[in-house]
Design a protein that fits this description.
Blueprint lengths: L2 H11 L13 H9 L7 E5 L6 H7 L4 E6 L2 H11 L7 E4 L12 E7 L8 H14 E12 L6 E2 L2 E2 L5 H8 L3 E12 L5 E11 L3
Parallel strand pairs: 1-2, 1-4, 2-3, 4-5
Antiparallel strand pairs: 5-9, 6-7, 8-9
Bound molecules: S-adenosylmethionine (SAM).
């Protein structure tokens, strides 16, 4: 499917503070990054980061090697405008993650909140796993959150795959240790609840 056309339409329809996934702060991801004592010199990529405020909060904490990748250029523009001059220190990549050119072993942390779960067929999922493996350093951290098995069956009119910690680990398990997992309830701006599963994986030594 043409991910770009779909997501540009989504971001053209609603302000980013009204989309169902909006959070003022991605607390759980920030807590995981701090709990793992990721140094501020670490290279961190937020895949499907859209207009998320995670990058704002990481800049505030002193992280200086940040990349945000999203298939929607408009979503990235919203984040850049909100951040202002400091946005120049972030690498912004407008790309489909399945086709993106990323530096080999370029990142200490790969973060994905609610992007991977849009991949429905096994070829796409395998392509994503290959990207993580090509781009994440050995022993790197992989933080991923998807709709939980009792979460919504779709988002933005797209079907999603729902996971629990073990089914998510099964997608990546050959290459990653599961460090921890946690269920989380997200409250949407419209007042609905969505159940998520967060997993923290560490890449095995090659
Ligand atoms: C549900 S939103 C979550 C956005 C962000 N992670 C957050 O929590 O605010 C999903 C995001 O993934 C992006 N996305 C979906 N499929 C993608 C793909 N194949 N490659 C890159 N980005 C993608 C969308 O444009 C959208 O910004």
């Amino acid at each position: 499917m043409d991910f770009s056309e779909h997501w540009e339409k989504v971001y053209a329809t609603k302000p980013v503070t009204q989309v169902s996934w909006f959070q003022e702060h991605d607390r759980l991801s920030l807590d995981l990054i701090q709990q793992e004592a990721v140094p501020t010199s670490a290279s961190i990529i937020d895949v499907g980061g859209g207009a998320s405020t995670l990058v704002d909060d990481l800049l505030e904490l002193g992280y200086s090697h940040l990349t945000v990748l999203d298939v929607s250029g408009s979503a990235l523009k919203v984040a850049q405008t909100r951040i202002g001059p400091s946005a120049a220190s972030v690498t912004w990549l407008e790309a489909n993650i399945l086709e993106a050119q990323l530096p080999a072993y370029g990142y200490e942390v790969w973060h994905d909140l609610a992007a991977f779960h849009f991949l429905m067929d096994s070829a796409e999922k395998q392509a994503y796993v290959r990207k993580v493996c090509e781009s994440l350093k050995p022993r790197g951290l992989f933080i991923i959150a998807t709709f939980a098995e009792d979460g919504p069956i779709q988002c933005s009119e797209l079907p999603v795959t729902r996971y629990n910690a073990s089914s998510l680990h099964a997608e990546f398990g050959e290459y990653f240790h599961l460090v921890s997992s946690a269920r989380s309830v997200h409250y949407t701006p419209a007042g609905n609840t969505q159940n998520f599963i967060y997993c923290l994986f560490r890449r095995k030594d090659p």
